[in-house]
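Because showing beats explaining, we let one protein speak, sequence and backbone structure tokens together, and leave readers to judge.
___
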Amino acid sequence: MIVTVYSKPACVQCVATYRALDKQGITYQVVDLTEDAVALQKVRDLGYQQAPVVVAGADHWSGFRPDKISALA
């Protein structure tokens, strides 16, 4: 499963999400929403307004969610 973290610079919850994914050994890719207008629109189309937005297969969420990250491991 591909895990994508849509992020922005200087985002505390984004860094916490990266650390939790790393701790669980989950491979992920990061997309900077300030540099990718298409990705920003995709996140908005999903109904999110706050970073990070994590997309893992058919599941997605916003914010730092250690419960969701643990469920991916």
Strands lie at 3-7, 29-32, 53-56, 59-62. The chain is about 40% helix and 25% strand. Residues 12-24 form the longest helix (13 residues).
